[in-house]
Write a structure and sequence with these properties.
By secondary structure, the chain is mainly alpha-helical. It is 63% helix and 3% strand. The chain has helices at residues 2-35, 45-49, 52-59, 63-74, 90-97, 126-136, 142-145, 148-171, 181-197, 211-222, 225-231, 233-237, 239-245, 248-253, 256-261, and strands spanning 77-81, 84-87. A two-stranded antiparallel ribbon has the order 1-2. Strand 1 and strand 2 form a beta hairpin. The longest helix is centred in the N-terminal third of the chain and has 34 residues, at 2-35. The chain is elongated and about 80 Å long. It starts with a helix and ends with a helix. The model has no long low-confidence stretch (mean pLDDT 79).
Length: 262
């Protein structure tokens, strides 16, 4: 009897390990690959197994390019994450994002929330999006935006932008290259603020060294924080970690949106 008990004592741990291994394999590998609701949808196997596979490319700011690469390999409809799909077919895009589409957005749009409110494009329920869109659609309609006075304003901003580019080329003594992205950010910001607030209250960041010109690059830098905040919210909430890992410039950029509101 003692021998039998010794054998059973040795078998029990081995059996328990085997059972746990089978449960682990089924839960985290076999089921996602073969029995999950989206297992039949083409796409990288790692996307179906781990939620963090796409998160890795997301925090590296390679999400869009990687998804485009997967579309080229697997087709117009792919699984990019457990419970998430991506479409690149123009007809499907029109059906999903068209004015008559009845598809709610995913929680991915949660990290576009600012000051506790969602912008229009980040509203999750389709019916609420359609209702709020109808309230402002006339303002952004082509016939409203393409008025002569507004077109003239945009043309003036284009001339100011070209003048700034020419001035900076004249001031450069090295190779004839220029980083124009910040200038086009100012161009877009000035046009949008003029459209929304009128000529008396709009910004003039293209030709003037206003405070907004310093804040806009910081806001762009702060956008890098979005994917990390969405994929790893607990790490973001650990303020002591952000102070140690991030540079002072990056950490200061996180307040740029609040500074602009002031």
């Amino acid at each position: 009897m003692a021998i039998v008990e010794d054998v059973l004592d040795g078998v029990r741990p081995t059996f328990a390990v085997a059972v746990l291994s089978i449960v682990f394999l089924y839960t985290f590998i076999i089921r996602p690959l073969y029995f999950a609701p989206l297992s039949h949808v083409p796409g990288p196997s790692w996307c179906k197994i781990s939620w963090y596979y796409l998160a890795y490319f997301d925090v590296r700011l390679e999400r869009n390019s990687k998804i485009a690469e997967w579309h080229q390999k697997y087709g117009p409809i792919i699984c990019i994450r457990q419970g998430a799909m991506s479409f690149s077919d123009p007809l499907l895009m029109r059906e999903i994002y068209g004015t008559t589409g009845k598809y709610s957005k995913s929680d991915f749009f949660d990290h576009f929330i600012a000051y506790g409110a969602r912008p229009l494009f980040a509203i999750v329920p389709y019916w609420e999006h359609q209702r709020k869109r109808s309230l402002i659609s006339s303002f952004y309609h082509k016939s409203s935006v393409n008025k002569p006075a507004r077109e003239l304003s945009v043309r003036k901003q284009v001339r100011k932008l070209l003048q700034q580019i020419e001035l900076r080329f004249q001031a450069k003594s090295g190779p004839e290259t220029m980083h124009v992205y910040p200038m086009f950010t100012c161009f877009a910001f000035d046009n949008i603020s003029r459209l929304l607030y009128g000529p008396r209250h709009c910004s003039h960041t293209i030709q003037n060294e206003y405070e907004e010109r310093q804040l806009l690059p910081k806001m762009k830098l702060a956008q890098l924080w979005g994917p990390l905040k969405y994929n790893f919210p607990l790490a973001v909430k650990a303020s002591f970690l952000t102070r140690r890992v991030l540079s002072d410039e990056f950490e200061d950029s996180l307040t740029a949106e609040d500074d602009l509101a002031m």
